[in-house]
Design a protein that fits this description.
5 strands; alpha/beta; Nucleotidyltransferase, domain 5; five-stranded mixed β-sheet; 12 helices; single chain
């Protein structure tokens, strides 16, 4: 089209130029025509429209103390039972919508901003994370519940239990036994999701008595308790996982074997890291292993060099397996 316009400026008729390029003049005129200004069509008011005084009467009733937090449908029904008819339900909604009042009329709590939890542990028994998972049984609809508490720094399972139900009293008993067994001092942080047992007053009062603070995941966020969820996935994706347990004794026996093998069959195990940290805190400086040197942290457990005559390095097994491709069978480590 630009070519046709350039040719027409050289004293060539528009008809000849369009025929030369095979273009219709109507197409050319339509493309080069300036856009028309938008036209606004104002709808004429309906003759059945309520007057200003009637509309103000509706607003006065809806803003009154009796109907301040009620929807138009309830207001319409109550007024109609008293023999009063102001307008239809749709008209009341339309009058309120002009003022932006057609939404929820009751007092609503503002959304609470939940901050993403971030916990850091530089030594054992500083942060514990725990969760409850269901274990299926041979009986349909019946599940067992496995309570597992993990130390965030060493990944050591400080306490676990298999029960027939999820109960706040059982959770409090598990924490009381675990704290007493490991001699935990005040200052411990316990992280969990927002389950019924985790948010219970019984557990909260126990932890407050022991001098421990609680940390919770954000609502409807599944990955804020990643360490416990990763351990449960590793547990249930094992090749020798039964899938269906015959009973309580079967579940406890298999879970005890799994935790024992997972924590005692690698060069640097959660058990060894936890015990090594306890020795370091008492003043001793045990020798480091290759696995510890790769995972150096700002404490004193990696200050002593390894002798050149020590055993050659070996590849360390990952501390935890969270993907299917990197998961290894427990039978290889037994």
């Amino acid at each position: 089209m630009d070519l046709v316009e350039d040719v027409s400026e050289l004293e060539v008729s528009m008809v000849a130029a369009c025929l030369a390029v095979g273009l219709s003049r109507a197409t050319l005129y339509r493309a080069t025509r300036p856009p028309m200004p938008p036209t606004v069509h104002q709808r004429a008011p309906s003759p059945r429209r309520l007057g200003d005084d009637e509309r103000q009467g509706i607003l006065d009733v809806m803003h009154g103390a009796e109907f301040l937090d009620q929807p138009p449908m309830e207001v319409f029904a109550k007024l109609l039972s008293r023999g009063v008819y102001l307008a239809s339900i749709r008209t009341i909604y339309r009058v309120l919508a002009e003022l932006g009042e057609s939404k929820e009329r009751r007092n609503q709590r503002s959304p609470h901003p939940y901050v993403k939890p971030s916990l850091t542990a530089t030594a054992s028994n500083q942060v514990w994370t725990w969760d409850i998972t269901k274990l299926a049984t041979l009986e349909r609809g019946v599940f067992l519940h496995a309570y597992v508490i993990i130390d965030l720094f060493s990944r050591y399972v400080v306490g676990w239990m298999v029960a027939a139900k999820e109960c706040k009293h059982l959770a409090a008993q598990l924490f009381a036994d675990s704290v007493a067994r490991h001699g935990i001092e005040p200052g411990l942080t316990v992280h969990s999701d927002r389950g019924a047992a985790m948010k219970s007053d019984t557990l909260a009062q126990l932890l407050a008595t022991l001098g421990a603070s609680q940390s919770f995941s954000r609502p409807h966020v599944s990955d804020d308790n990643a360490f416990s969820e990763a351990q449960f996935k590793t547990l249930k994706y094992q090749p020798d996982y039964p899938g269906l347990f015959t009973g309580m004794l079967h579940a406890r026996g298999w879970l005890e074997l799994f935790l024992h093998v997972a924590q005692t069959t690698t060069i640097s195990t959660p058990d060894s890291r936890s015990s090594r940290r306890r020795k370091c805190s008492s003043g001793a400086s045990p020798p480091c292993t290759p696995c510890d040197r790769k995972r150096s942290t700002p404490h004193t457990r990696c200050t002593q060099a390894v002798s050149p005559m020590a055993r050659p390095r070996r590849l360390c097994r990952p501390r935890r397996c969270t993907s299917t491709r990197s998961r290894r069978s427990l039978s290889r480590w037994q």
